[in-house]
Amino acid sequence: MVDTNFKMSFKVRAAKKEDCKDISRMIMELAVYEKMPDQVNISHKELERDGFSPNPFYECLIAEVSDENKTKDGYTIVGYALYFYTYSTWKGRSVFMEDLYVMPDFRGKGIGKGLMAKVAQIGVEKQCVRLQFSVLEWNKPSLDFYVAKGAEDLTAKEGWHFFRFDGQALHQLAKEAPED
Amino acid sequence: MVDTNFKMSFKVRAAKKEDCKDISRMIMELAVYEKMPDQVNISHKELERDGFSPNPFYECLIAEVSDENKTKDGYTIVGYALYFYTYSTWKGRSVFMEDLYVMPDFRGKGIGKGLMAKVAQIGVEKQCVRLQFSVLEWNKPSLDFYVAKGAEDLTAKEGWHFFRFDGQALHQLAKEAPED
């Protein structure tokens, strides 16, 4: 009998600039899973510029498996967690996990948990008191995963809604800024 | 007849370290308005440390009125917008407005709009393609204000829910990080 749910050996490490092509590939895979692939408008070039220059806009962890466990397409980088620091005026420093992704064949092996726990550890080391993220309400497997680990749904509990200006609305608003 | 809805003259400028006591005062006023005053656990000292050192965790704008329009308690700083930069793996650089507040006696005079428009302008200058924020669903005046300016409710439209680990759950998660 083969145990398909064994804890595959994997390594979590900080992403390097050279990993941006793999991150870009997985960003698209995640968007397909979230049913919004046409929304992705970013390439590994922007990822390199925005994450690997002074004052980067984000930090990223990747999960890597050994060569013998590589995918059929030859990939050994099979998951990532992309995060940045935010600020609560009630509690102070926080870390926000924008994306957490593990390739389908590698799920159920502790990799997602490992990536998320590492983000939490890095946040705690930086004196962050919260780890936040957003989840699509129809994504029941992910919701269950996060709640099982102790996360709270603030939208359900307190009624927080996410708002956004973009495109024309953002540029119109910017034009109406008072002069200095 | 007195027009109480006139456009009061005000100035929007970047906050300085010396403004942190005023910001701290208004953070508490906003929390009282949001019915969660017991949640505020931050003083002007932390605001000074986190916003006014190298690699700050946030940036802040304040709105100031002239001395003749000061409050009955003598304040001339009557509003603030606190924001930071985030990152979308679909669209790139974004700006997140954590707080937008104007003291009650100074509402309806274009000050909130002015602060928000200035955040948008600063974001656009930094090549941000989104201005995001969160709003409590019962806060109808604020919801209406944002929607009237062109913002979209992503929770209602796409089903995004806000999640959080904090306190014991965060520390437990951090302890489970894989070793390097």
From TrEMBL, chains A, B:
Molecular function as annotated in GO: acyltransferase activity
GO biological process entries: polyamine metabolic process
Domain of life: Eukaryota
CDD domains in UniProt: NAT_SF (cd04301)
Keywords: Acyltransferase, Transferase
Ranges for domain N-acetyltransferase: 31-178
Pfam family, one: Acetyltransf_1
InterPro entries noted in UniProt: Acyl_CoA_acyltransferase, Diverse_Substrate_AcTransf, GNAT_dom
UniProt family annotation: Belongs to the acetyltransferase family.
Designated name of the protein: N-acetyltransferase domain-containing protein
Lineage of the species this protein comes from: Eukaryota, Metazoa, Chordata, Craniata, Vertebrata
